[in-house]
Amino acid sequence: MNEPITSKGQVYDTSSIRALDLSHHMHPFADQQELVSEGGVRVITRGEGVYLWDSEGERLLDGMGGLWCINIGYGRKELVEAAARQMEELPYYNTFFKTTTPVAAELAAEIASISPNGLDRIFYSNSGSEANDTNIRLARLYWTRLGRPERKAIISRHNAYHGSSIGSGSLTGFDDMHDIAGVPIADVHHAPAPFWWRDGRGQTVEEHCAWALDRLEETILHVGPENVAAFIGEPVQGAGGVLTPPPGYWQGVQEICRRYDILLICDEVICGFGRTGQWFGSQTYAIEPDIITTAKGLSSGYLPISASVFGGRVASVLMDKPGRMNHGYTCSGHPVAAAVALENIRILKRERIVERVGEEIGPYFQARLRELLDHPLVGEVRGVGLMAAVELTRDKEGRTPIEPVSSLATSVRNLCFKTGLTTRAVRDSLVFSPPLVISKDEIDWLVKRLRDNLNQFVG
Ligand code: PXG
Question: Residue 127 C-alpha to ligand 1 middle, in angstroms?
């Protein structure tokens, strides 16, 4: 039995929390019996800045920013106050039947003010998954209204993560998420995405990029361009292992989409709100999307809220002409979540957080992590802004994958977790996405802790 521990005045009994959790709480993406055999999971109780504390008082530097989402850091009183004010005034009202709330309207205008490519219309959901389900509907409805209902196929990519609902999980490009009947849904197709380290052996980066673009076009031709509604892609594939696009890749994708008149959806759930050093990954890679998906950093993860943002071409058919879209969620445009998101964006603007990522702290983070390339177990460091992957290898030249896959990365991740640093193992890489407010000293600590932990596995 663990001793009860005090964290900011609160007493936690770790073992009883673990016992309750194991008995009643089924965790996402987890094998519950594995959790049972390990005696339960870590209990996280508090956050401040880039740090988390657990129920036993241990501190962790949150190298993952929650789950790629705590952009402005933990413990922001302004967000707490915005939520409390809104809760007192109006905790809930819907936006379905000819009503709105001041914050839902104001937030829509605020998102429009920062969105790429002049996108200025917003449909609210509560998660990235729901927003991508919405996007499937938006894209198909767009073509239906134009008298082309056969244009319903969505082209996604391998290693894409677009959510885990039945619709968005179908867009996701991991085979292990398609291991139940009926998923992926019909008319979703996956093309390879560039992943030079693993799939481009024997090719230059340029050759690999051209290969990936050819495969994309081939997929579209196989489906028949006249049947394709949209292509969806993350500017940088996040959960797939921070797969940064090679130079020219997105220009190539856009040319293909234009050639076949296919809508371009950029999933900005991770890349949005400053992660890549600009407001959106679309701006970092000069992409002109028709629709973007936003979630996570929209509220810095403080409350669930997401938005599909679209403009000119799609709006002219779906908003500027008569006709209704039969779609929406009870909490679409939830006033408390909207109030928090509005304050979050204002903080990002007021404190020039996005500019700091682009000009100063992002380049510093990338440069410091790249120093690890001299380490015998580090094959590649990928990333942009404050998202990065450190690819582990035991064969720098031949790049043969580690057997079994993920074994080394998982061991290093576990040691990091034990020694005060959160990171995530994705196949053979460790991924990072710290809060955008991280300092240089904190980055120095992160890189040193990672190097020290990697040293334990040399030989
Ligand atoms: N799009 C992208 C690009 C994402 O990264 C979603 C959509 C879905 O969002 P919701 O809010 O429905 O989860 C995501 C979510 C991981 C991990 O292990 C990543 C996500 C979610 C859960 C785990 O890296 N990204």
Answer: 9
